[in-house]
Amino acid sequence: MYLNYLDFFSIFISGDKGIVWNYLNKEYGGVISEGKNNQNIINLTLKKLRVSSDLYQVRPPVSYSADQVFISDKNNNKLFIDYSKLGQDGCNMICEPDFNPNFFSIVIDFIASVYALKANSFFCHSAAFKYKDATILMPAFRGAGKTTTLIEAVDIGAKYISDDWVRICGNGELQRIPKNILLMHYDIEKNKMLENFLSDCDRAAFSLVSELEKDKFDLYSDQVMDVKDIARVRLSPHNLFGKSNVIESADIIDYVCWLEKTHSNNQEEVKISDSNLEQLVSKVQNTIYLEHTPFFLAYSVHVSRGLPRNQLIDDMPNIVKQIAAKAFSDAKIISLNRGNNDIEITLNSILM
Q1: CA distances from 17 to 43, 82, 198, 234 (A)
Q2: Which of 122, 226, 261, 268 lies in disulfide reach of 144, CB 3.0 to 4.6 Å?
């Protein structure tokens, strides 16, 4: 079967069925078919990897043998990516069938971000939505509140484009990527209506995490992290918001609001400060690197082992800078700290 990802690539998936196979069918069912839609083909083989005994770990999750570089999940399931061909037709990937699906979702994000560069675009770690005819891009580091802000915005009439990664094209257009919304325990706590979309099993897992947050159980930190890893759910934005509240693209960006993480629940005012293009682009680049750190580390090891360089990955900072400078040139650029304020107050403060 093929996973057809936008106009970037088609992944030919073969091998053993398991957790990854099931995840791909569930997460990308709408873009999976028996035929390919793109010229660039990635060959993904799901099988147990035979790794030589001379495997050396650089630092988790990256290790290497005499001729290959691997990324491992916490259960030591391994993934190999042919960095030499990434971004081109004929790239090969080998993944063990029970590789962690949450980690594998990040793998897909990284791969797509490299092919996006070839298509004169880049992936921005950002929420994006239209509100009162204005297109708002809200990039941020992980945990700043992108998803929470997006969900609250849609609840008062905004149109969803993205809650995690969004494609930004060279002409300034935003494009939604084929990805479900990942909801964590803190998203459910802040938006109780989301409980209506949970299965009984998911609801029980989120409830357990809430109890763990109150230190009601005597568990080691790694055990707590294992429970939190289970307590997450992926939902289709169409199912969550309704098809009429989801748009595939926007022609122009009106506002770019760098979302700062709020450290106080007592902040009474929405804090908005002017920013500039250079500061914004730097933050966007740093966020891309942070989110994809394991893959950049694996690529560095790939190069250090004398394997061929990848021009797209090498040029990523410059490509992102050039496209972002053009796409953001006509937008109002600000830094936003919404505190604990109502979403309508927040958005109206941006549009003032």
Answers
A1: 15, 22, 26, 21
A2: 261
Query: CA-CA distance, 343 to 151, in Å (whole number)?
Result: 10
CATH architecture of 120-180+236-352: 3-Layer(aba) Sandwich (3.40)
DSSP 84-139: TTTTSTTEEEEE-TT--HHHHHHHHHHHHHHHHHHTTEEEEEEEEEEETTEEEEEE
Antiparallel, parallel or unpaired: β 249-250 and 232-235: unpaired
In order along its 352 residues, the chain shows pLDDT tens digits of: 999 999 999 999 999 999 999 999 999 999 999 999 999 999 999 999 988 778 899 999 999 998 899 999 999 999 999 999 999 999 999 999 999 999 999 999 999 999 999 999 999 999 999 999 999 999 999 989 999 999 999 999 999 999 999 999 988 899 999 999 998 877 888 888 888 888 888 888 888 877 776 666 666 566 666 666 677 889 999 999 999 999 999 889 999 999 998 765 666 688 899 999 999 999 999 999 999 999 999 999 999 999 999 999 999 999 999 999 999 999 999 999 988 788 999 999 999 8
Domain boundaries, the chain: 1-119, 120-180+236-352, 182-235
Helix residue ranges per DSSP H, 191-310 = 200-213, 221-230, 237-241, 277-291, 293-304
Helix (H) or strand (E) holding 188: helix 185-190
